[in-house]
Design brief:
Number of strands: 12
Structural class: alpha/beta
Distance between the termini: 47 Å
């Protein structure tokens, strides 16, 4: 269903994991971000694009290569595809595809397109790399930490920030890369908030916001969780580690596994730094 709609922006939120997909329209282009999840949801997005496309070029941006973000790739075969260099050389492409197939098989889902890992036409290799589309400029920033291949995208002059799996209003960090990289990306996000004219922040899970104070609060929520987690692991404070896991909203086997995965990654990082646990 649509979460937000204006003249140039549509945000869709899936019934699953509150995952967002976004359309941004310009005079000469349509940009689609992370189309997901269910076939009926992807079909709604596709129909909206077809109704308004009017011959414009379609760009398809993937914020990273997690299976819930790439699951709609095959529905847009004529799009120019954008992603990071880390995504282009993703070491576990078949694993991600297997997760999609497992999900579809588990829920008896048939899709009217082939399941494939995205082939990139435009590869983002460094912070500040830009794509100019008429009067619109998209500036990209590498955003590792959640995964190694994450991207931010800032669309100007509208001031739209596509944040990927960062700065959710409810979701604490899931660290599949490195906690230090995640903190560095949060530092980068803070600079963006304080120095760029961001009018609309769109995370990949949860609600958008137009409020700068809310953006900073979300950033601090994520930063606090990671810093407290690192401290708890360094001090072997199992009670604190368990309490942090209980801060996960929508407690489930999935959120428990994500928190435990965070602990394992931080523990390994501590050992590599020579911390005695």
């Amino acid at each position: 269903m649509k979460q937000f709609e204006s003249e140039s922006v549509k945000i869709y939120q899936s019934a699953l994991w509150k995952t967002t997909s976004t359309i941004v329209e310009g005079e000469d282009f349509i940009l689609l971000v992370d189309p997901t999840w269910l076939p009926i949801e992807i079909e709604e997005i596709k129909k909206d694009i077809e109704k308004s496309r009017a011959g414009r070029t379609l760009y398809l941006l993937f914020t990273h290569g997690d299976f819930d973000h790439i699951i709609g790739y095959g529905a847009f075969p004529d799009a120019i595809v954008i992603g990071s260099e880390g995504m282009k050389h993703h070491p576990r492409k078949q694993y991600k595809l297997n997760l999609i197939k497992q999900f579809d098989n588990e829920y008896y889902i048939d899709r009217p397109y082939d399941i494939q890992f995205p082939e990139l036409d435009c590869v983002i290799r460094e912070d500040g790399q830009q794509l100019k589309l008429g009067e619109t400029t998209i500036t990209f920033y590498l955003a590792p930490g959640h995964t190694h291949d994450g991207l931010f995208a800032i669309i100007e002059p509208q001031g739209i920030w596509i944040a990927g799996d960062y700065l959710s209003d409810f979701e604490l960090p899931y660290i599949f890369d490195q906690s230090s990289a995640y903190l560095n990306t949060l530092d980068k996000a803070e600079v963006i908030i304080k120095n760029r004219n961001i009018t609309l922040l769109i995370p990949s899970h949860g609600e958008f916001t137009t409020d700068t104070g809310a953006m900073l609060a979300r950033l601090e929520m994520a930063r606090s969780y990671i810093k407290r987690l690192v401290r708890s692991v360094e001090q072997n404070d199992n009670e604190a580690i368990i309490a942090l896991g209980e801060e996960m909203k929508y407690p489930s086997s999935f959120t428990r596994e994500c928190h435990e995965g965070n602990v394992d990654i931080v523990r390994q990082e501590c050992l590599e730094r020579g911390v005695q646990l």
